[in-house]
Specification:
Layout lengths: L20 H9 L25 H5 L5 E6 L2 E11 L2 E5 L5 E5 L2 E6 L4 E6 L5 H4 L8 E10 L3 E20 L2 E14 L2 E9 L6 E9 L2 E9 L7
Antiparallel strand pairs: 1-2, 1-12, 2-3, 3-4, 4-5, 6-7, 7-8, 8-9, 9-10, 10-11, 11-12
Length: about 230
């Protein structure tokens, strides 16, 4: 899969919801991770846009930031909500990506969306991918739209691979690649994660939010859950 080159983009966060500037402020007010001092910093708009994140542009913003690359374009998301381990990454044009343990939990506003996902049994991502010593099998349940394909149970397998160098904002991270294979009747796709071998933090990933819609996520200014 070829992922496009990047160039910088900016827009006001008031585009999160139509006429919803007050709603944005209310959301930010309830979140300790985002400052109210500036709402004109980072953009999410997958309609053909490209971004060029640099160490300087990331440092100039007070927000936790995540780059997202999709078939429709690229974007930078800001962390605007944390709730019981789920992180809400927000931007313009109604686009929202929710993650949990580095895995996309659901999306809003994309051409294809992951409406919900769950692990009916063990969740190896919550346990930490740095603990993997070999392939592990489990199951995932996913809801996709459009077409309302709900309650799809997928057979899943994670397999740790070797260490790879991944460059983010000019810094090289030595990360372990972990491949995930997901299969159901008439459906198969592969996800990939680049994981800190020390603590399991996922710095980069390529995940399918729906069988025909991949999303690449890159941590620019990562948010790490407080230690329990």
């Amino acid at each position: 899969m070829a992922w496009p080159e990047t160039q910088r983009a900016r827009v006001a966060l008031s585009f999160l919801f139509p006429g919803g500037f007050a709603l944005v402020l209310a959301l930010l007010a309830g979140c300790s991770t985002v400052s109210l001092g500036s709402v004109e910093s980072v953009r999410l708009a997958f309609q053909g846009d490209k971004v060029d994140a640099t160490p300087e542009s990331v440092a100039a913003s007070p927000y936790f930031q995540l780059q997202a690359n999709s078939p429709a374009g690229q974007a930078i998301l800001i962390l605007a909500k944390t709730e019981q381990g789920e992180l809400g990454w927000y931007g313009g044009n109604h686009n929202i990506v929710f993650t949990r343990d580095g895995v996309i939990a659901r999306t809003v506003g994309l051409p294809q969306n992951l409406d919900a996902s769950a692990f009916p049994g063990e969740n190896p991502f919550h346990q930490g991918l740095q603990r993997l010593s070999g392939p592990v099998s489990y199951s995932r349940r996913m809801d996709w739209s459009p077409d309302y394909r709900y309650g799809v149970i997928l057979r899943a397998q994670l397999e740790p691979k070797g260490l790879e160098d991944v460059e983010i904002l000019g810094k090289v991270h030595r990360l372990r690649r972990v491949d995930e294979s997901l299969t159901a009747q008439g459906v198969h796709f592969d996800n990939r994660y680049w994981v800190d071998p020390a603590d399991g933090f996922i710095w980069k990933s390529r995940q399918y939010v729906a069988p025909d819609y991949p999303l690449e996520l890159i941590q620019l200014r990562p948010y790490r859950e407080p230690a329990a």
